[in-house]
Amino acid sequence: GATIRKDEETGEIFIARVIHGGLADRSGLLHPGDLLVEVNGNPVVGLDPEQVIQILMDSQGTILFKVLPNETPASSSCCAKSVFVRAMVDYCPLQDTSIPCPDAGMAFRRGDLLEVVDQSDERWWQARKLPSAASCARLIPSAGRLKSKQREQWWSQPSHVHTCIKACDLCCLSEEDPNQTDDRQVAEVKTLFLLSAELEEVHAAADDPSSDTGGSFYLAGFRQSFCLWRRTSHRRRRQSCTSCSPTLSSLSSPYEEVSLYQRHPEEKHRLIVLAGASGVGVNELRKRLIKTNPLSLQGPLPHTTRPIRAGELAKPEYHFVSKELFEYMVVSHRFVEYGEFRGHLYGTSIDAIDDVLRRGQICIVDVEPHNVQMLRTSRLKPFVIFIKPPSPERLRETRREARIISAQLHLLLLQEDDFLQLEEASRLLEVKYRHLFDRVLVNEDLQECCSRLFSLIQEAQQEPQWTPVGWTSDSTED
Ligand SMILES: Nc1ncnc2c1ncn2[C@@H]1O[C@H](COP(=O)(O)OP(=O)(O)OP(=O)(O)O)[C@@H](O)[C@H]1O
């Protein structure tokens, strides 16, 4: 329940910290800074901390400490106000040689919620993991300490590839007039979305202008070419540069302060974000949810530069815009995701999300996990649900009839390779983005997953949830 330290000059042993909720804390008799004179009658001045610990370990029954109380004790830990944080990094005390007492340390993974009960030591904080019945806190590195560790690691890496710089360089080379900023940025978009041989193959195979409203894989209520763009553009959709982005870089804050937020019934609904590896069923779940609850749930209407087809005006399933307007929206950062398919641009815009929310409906989007960060604003207050596959056996059992669209636009049954890829991609995404997910849901039985998803969506809107403090402490729109 306490740690000790030795004053190297005088050889005196002091109580370094009292663990919140531990025996020493509950006794109220020991405080940081108290001078330890004797343990069970053994003088300890001049001993090493390890020798003092050995005396304690050899003792049985009652342990008697003789202490000289610290004359200016720090304010009692029980009076300090707890701060709640979400861990944005993983930490393991057993791999940290600098921790004063590894046994008193607490391991955590990114995304874990922690109650920090004591920040009086600028290097080591005391915390409990939530939800937790444990009364005794454990040691975690302070934000400052973790940041300096991250900085050391960052500088020790040989090089950092800045994808944004590369994209700009390339586009500058291809521009006739380097002063035209907008054109340059548009060229950057093109650079980022240069179609691969695979996608060109799709163009050739699918060059049938009527296919968007016909074909055996038409998804009711969902735009086929938009879905096909999504399906074939994984990893080519717009991505921010993680080397440079202050929010995503390895130097960003290791803890995010959070507080409980409950949506007021008159406030706009929280944005619901579904994320998952390609093929896990995110689109199927979203489609089913909207189909069964069309009045309360809606997806944002995508934008496209594709021409309007005959008969589409009656019930447009896109915002049809000119290429110029689309490109203007790109440079104005109006798109969450965008890309090119069959020579036309497609994208999900923030404005389209706002349209749904303004109508009083719950907006549900599915985005690539690397794009979740840009939706994390106090205005949208996204509730992010990660969809993951079930166990390997159940995945193969439940997906016997499942189909994915091939690069040649054929609907294919999932093969062993697809299952392996899906499992690996899902595992990697969860490791990398866990801190951005509010909930993780296993998509085993479709019907059951849909109803659990619907309950989660209700929970997000009606029950208190942990959100970044910035989302509730100010009313500024971002
Ligand atoms: N729980 C499930 N049981 C059986 N089949 C499922 C289940 N979930 C999804 N499927 C099927 O798996 C296939 C792929 O699903 P879906 O198209 O929704 O994937 P996705 O996650 O949206 O991937 P992408 O973004 O690459 O399109 C579809 O045929 C869908 O009907």
Key phrases:
478 residues, alpha+beta, Pdz3 Domain, SH3 type barrels, Rossmann fold, 3 domains, five-stranded antiparallel beta sheet, 15 helices, 21% strand, elongated, binds adenosine-5'-triphosphate, P-loop_NTPase, Guanylate_kin-like_dom, MAGUK p55 scaffold protein 4
Chain-wise SSE layout:
Blueprint lengths: L1 E5 L6 E6 L4 H5 L7 E5 L2 E2 L5 H10 L6 E4 L14 E5 L25 E6 L5 E7 L7 E4 L1 H14 L6 H12 L6 H12 L4 H9 L18 H9 L22 E7 L10 E5 L5 H11 L4 E2 L4 E2 L14 E2 L2 H9 L3 E7 L2 E6 H9 L3 E5 L5 H4 L7 E6 L3 H7 L4 E3 L5 E3 L2 H18 L5 E4 L3 H17 L2 E4 L1 H4 L5
Parallel strand pairs: 11-17, 11-18, 12-17, 13-14, 18-21
Antiparallel strand pairs: 1-2, 2-3, 3-4, 3-5, 6-7, 6-10, 7-8, 8-9, 10-22, 13-16, 15-16, 19-20
Helix pairs in contact: 4-5, 5-9
The protein binds adenosine-5'-triphosphate (ATP).
Adenosine-5'-triphosphate binds next to helix 7, helix 8, strand 19 and helix 14.
Protein name: MAGUK p55 scaffold protein 4
Family: Belongs to the MAGUK family.
Pfam families: Guanylate_kin (PF00625), PDZ (PF00595)
Oligomer: single chain
Shape by Cα distribution: elongated
Overall strand count:
22
Helix content: 25-40%
Q: What is the domain tally?
A: 3
DSSP strand (E) fraction? Answer: 15-25%
Low-confidence stretches: 161-223, 238-250
The CATH topology of the largest domain, please? Answer: Rossmann fold
- Kindly report the name of the CATH homologous superfamily of the largest domain: P-loop containing nucleotide triphosphate hydrolases
The end-to-end span amounts to 45 Å
Distinct helical segment count: 15
Rg on CA atoms, Å: 28 Å
- Estimated structural class: alpha+beta
Small molecules (ligands, ions, cofactors) in the structure: adenosine-5'-triphosphate
User: Main β-sheet: number of strands, strand sense, barrel status?
Assistant: 6 strands, antiparallel
